Amino acid sequence: MSKSADKETVVFKARKLTKVYDMGEVKVHALRGVDLELYSGELIVLLGPSGSGKSTLLNIIGGLDTATSGNVTYQEQDITMASDEELTNYRRFHVGFVFQFYNLIPSLTALENVAVVTEIAENPMNPAEALRLVGLGDRLDHFPAQLSGGEQQRVAIARAVAKNPEVLLCDEPTGALDFATGIIVLEVLERINRELGTATVLITHNADIAEMADRVIYLSDGLISRVRINGHKKSPRELRW
Amino acid sequence: MKTINRKILRNLWGMKGQVIAIALVIASGVATFIMSISTMQSLKLTQATFYKDYCFAEVFASLKRAPESLRLRIQKIPGIDRIETRVFAAVNIDIPGFPDPATGHIISIPDSGEALLNRLYLRQGRLPEPSREDEVVIGEPFAEAHDFKPGDKIGAVINSRRKSLTIVGIALSPEHIYQMPPGAVFPDFERYGVMWMGRAPLGTAYDLDDAFNNITLTTSPGANINDIIDRLDKLLKPYGGLGAYGRRDQLSHRYLSEEFRQLEQMATIFPVIFLGVATFLLSVVIGRLINLQREEVAVLKAFGYRKLDIGLHFVKLVLSIVLAGVILGIAGGFWLGKWMGTIYMEFYRFPFLKYELHPYVAVIAALVSAMAAILGTMHSLRKAALLPPAQAMRPEPPATYRETLPERLGLKRLLSQPTRMIVRHIGRRPVQSLLSVSGIAFACAIMMVGSFQGDAIDYMVDVQFGLSQREDLTVTFVEPTSRKALYNLKSIEGIEHGEVFRTVPVRLRSGHRSYRTAIQGLESGGDLQRLLNAELKTVALPPSGIALTDHLGDMLGVRAGDMLTVEVLEGSRPVFNVLVAALVSQYIGVSAYMDMSALNRLMREGNAISGVYLAADSQYLQEIFKKLKGIPHIAGTEIREKAIKKFYETMGETILIFTFINTFLAGIIAFGVVYNNARIALSERSRELASLRVLGFTRAEISYILLGELGILTLAAVPLGFLIGRGMCDYIAENLKTDLFRVPLILEANTYAFAATVVLVAACVSGLIVRRRLDHLDLIGVLKTKE
User: Fold this and answer.
1) Which residues span the domain enclosing B749?
2) What is the pLDDT of residues A184-193, one digit of tens each?
3) Assign residue B451 a region: left if phi > 0, alpha if psi is -120 to 50, beta otherwise?
4) Considering its fold, how many domains does chain B have in total?
5) Which of B220, B253, B286 is the last residue of a domain?
6) Among B121, B372, B605, B787, which residue has the least CB neighbours within 10 Å?
7) Contact by Cβ (8 Å): B674, B714
8) Measured between beta carbons, which residues in chain B are less than 8 angstroms from residue A144?
9) Are residues B108 and B160 in the same domain?
10) Are B585 and B744 in contact (CB under 8 A)?
């Protein structure tokens, strides 16, 4: 909990963020002006129904997508107008992603799926160590097809944290998992946030998961409707849905 | 190894069937390229080495008789390096135990021993003793045909005197790499031989003591050959010169040059087709692979891999396939090249073959293949590199299908749902479908090129010997003689009919163009030698004027009605102008024809004849040969049937080999295209097909949807292949047109049938392989995974 208490350092700051998808005939307003801060070591849950703009917001702060207007700063650097190469470097050295469908590379083993990222990072962990961190020390040479959904998602988490990122962005990490497996995955995320102090943003449409966050941000129709600070964070084991 | 590179290896392994198919197509292209270029270069190198080491002359001339002292005057022509005067004569050869008449040439070797020019490469034995009039060295092909060894004896009629000769050596000469009787179209090693004898005894035999009737020379660097030929002609004219000529007109050299030109063509056409098809296959397969790996690419990008990293990743993948193909192709091409080399050695008599594959040829093959592959996949590689990660994370939207033209034209209600799926799938990617069709069509076309030469040669022989040259035997006299000779021959039992002819060596000239040939004076109303028009109908010999082979007309730039200058190359060498009365059609050789009495009049020589065409009863042939051998002034007898048979034997072998290679390569292309199409269709549609299986479709029904499309593409490709094949054959025929022969564009029905069969069999085999995979479709698995 070393850094999570330190709420002074702002990792991200988003101001008046909008995103419009031009679908030809219609324009879809995914974000309509979002203001948001993420503090160092904090665990945020972005909660909202599908189509509320959660993934769009995550993609923009993760440097996967760019905003239509407004601006995003990462550690006081404006990344709104960053070039493709700057965004690539940003993702390469600072951000870790966990996706709903794991997105492992099927032709690579668990260890290799992590190594493919650590090989291009600046100060990475040992890939095997990262897998031990998520409890997969005995599954290093298994291919994705030989792993269960939960195991695959844990490999994905190991891959995301192995580069020692400042931020971990998780898009519905338990969305494709059953309850018990989902809890295991959330425990891993919680432990990494606690032990490594990695600021974590977790997207979900499951209100129960929000109980494990420092802060819960409710999104609906492209706008932040409410922010709730959890007085008492529940551990994933205490969650029920 | 970097993890990302390990991914390449695993991807390659995962689609190994397709990788092998593409690599094989690339290998075929590289192999044909390497084979043709290396064979050509090796033959050229061998030729150049043989020419140089054995001093092949550059200018050649024959004459009636000149004193040796003329040599000093010739030596003064500027630009001449070395001169050798020779005695060169036609002989009739009598081989013990071989009834057919055989002819040959006998050439003198200087008494000093080693010749200055056109030296012999002694394979066995030794050179003849200068003084011995009964010792000869004979050419290797003739020796091999009769299994002669040094010490064996043969008979020869030398200047009308029968002699027994002892073979003391077997040799090869740069002057006779391609050994052909003069005027013949095909080599006949059994009935034509070249031999060499000491200058003194040969000179005595031909009354050429201290005189010569043949001269060869080399020039110093930078000399003007045409100028030397003109001056030499002037000097030789009073001595019955028959016109000097350079290497360009030397028979053996010319045949070699033509063969090399043919190889050069093969070295361009075939590799271009193979690499074109391989490029197309790569572009389709890699395009599909990149589509399948959209999400992997997106993840790599999300984790910070750069555009360049992603681009290079797939470039490496493409180049790995190319590399496999190139290595296989170089090895295969090297092996084929060596094999072709040994086959060519049978035709051309080189003492050795210097087979070598220049590394740069292999490097060019590799670079061209790699460049073609990268260009072909550029579009997909760019797409992968520029793929926006956030968008790529989402699965590709469903493909847009439309009703196709046949459906909109009202055929829709005639088509079942599965058939509509097939039609719409083809219609969705018209360009790719068209390219697939073209790829298969090229396989079909290559097959046709292989068989076409066989058809064309059959046809050439049918026309030449069935319609035009219909005699059974041609008897040529040593010197022009009187018509009486015909009656002597006709009295031989078994001779049914005879027609005389007069051959006059000439140079035909029109403006600045000229051509050395002979005018054939034929009897008007003759039946054994007939002239054909473009429709291959017999045309009458024009009573005055000259008839030219159409190709000769083209070469000289004259048409019927134009005037042509004729320079006679024998006797008093008159020069006269004649009217080109007609152009006649002929596939083998080029000739000029005149009415014999008109030719005799122009030559001011009365009724002189050079020889007789004979029709004979085949039962009496042996008797006839025996009688002919006894007639002293006969220079040679050519037997038509044997010439044709021999020709088929030699051509048959090479054609069979080429057909085999072509069939094999075309099969690879057809298989490569169909198999890749099938595999891609399978990977794109396995989910859809599994869904149909779940809904109750049988295996046969879903196979129909997948394989029906391939069936339609293959069937559409066959007629297109016929068209392309015809075009390619036409192109090849057009480019192989020489004065030696013109290959007509003849394609028999069985050639079409064979080409179509190979393509259909290859398609069926690849269809069956994919069908096996369809049978094992994992219904539950396919439905569970997310799209």
Assistant:
1) 424-468+641-787
2) 889 999 999 9
3) alpha
4) 4
5) B253
6) B787
7) yes
8) none
9) yes
10) no
